[in-house]
Amino acid sequence: xxxxxxxxxxxxxxxxxxxxxxxxxAETYPEPRPVTGQEIIHDPTVIRLGSGGYAAYSTGxxxxxxxxxxxxHWHDSGNAFAEPPEWWYEYNDTGDPWAPDISYRDGxxxxxxxxxxxxxxxxxxxxxxxxxxxxxxxxxHGKVFSSERTDSWNAxxxxxxxxxxxxxxxxxSYWTGIRMVELxxxxxxxxxxxxxxxxxxxxxxxxxxxxxxxxRHGRYYYLFASYDACCSGVNSTYKIKVGRSTSVTGPYVxxxxxxxxxxxxxxxxxxxxxxxxxxxxxxxxxRGEDWLAYHYYDAQDNGTPKLGLNKLNWxxxxxxxx
Length: 322
What we know:
Helix content is 2%, strand content 45%. By secondary structure, it is mostly beta strands. Strands 1-5-4-3-2 form a five-stranded mixed beta sheet, with no helix packed on it. It has a four-stranded antiparallel beta sheet with strand order 6-7-8-9, with no helix packed on it. It has a four-stranded antiparallel beta sheet with strand order 10-11-12-13, with no helix packed on it.
């Protein structure tokens, strides 16, 4: 959940005319996998647990938790933490965390998240670890990176990616868009004096791009990001775009060759039918398949944010929603 404003985007028809081999955006999109139980979620991050079943964490609560045995029926499992860590209150009055990211490495689950307030880039990203990935088992380790009002970026919406033995974190929302820093793999914190790489932005203020996630497929790294406005129920205009690079630090370009630093990005998924404002996305692997997790606003349920899950297929080097 971040600072967002509705802006226009490239139409599907124009994108497909320019990029016949683009990430497959269509006038009619596949509906998300039917899910039951606790569907309500925002900014989901999903993982298949080593113990079996699935965990999803999200904005809301003290990092809201959902569990599922089969990836289809989900139940509310409380929160990652019983109480907000005390340091969160430096960044908002309610200890409200946003947009978590879960991953597994070195025998532990790692949960990154942001704390901030609406309309400011006085923000911080924290990290916690768990032996099981289950709610109630997380140990918080404090801040890993932060931004201040004097910075030209916003330290929210973290996501982790490994590349050639090095660990990286993408982040960003509005201000100048999507950024990246290298992390110490031992501590999970940003390296001292780490270079802040610039991955994507838009030419039009207020640079409405956020929620980055990088996934690797073949020789490319794919940067998925949410564009335009979330958090307005059925009036949300969120959509997901993607670009790729052979280097984790970029430059990322779309299928027409336009850099994401110059407003490029192939449209992958946008609102359709009752599924409004698709975004807040992440990608997870399940038995060798890539899945896109995101939220949408249900037009048949007063714009309630719900969990969207679609398999990702790959065609001619670009993802398409199945």
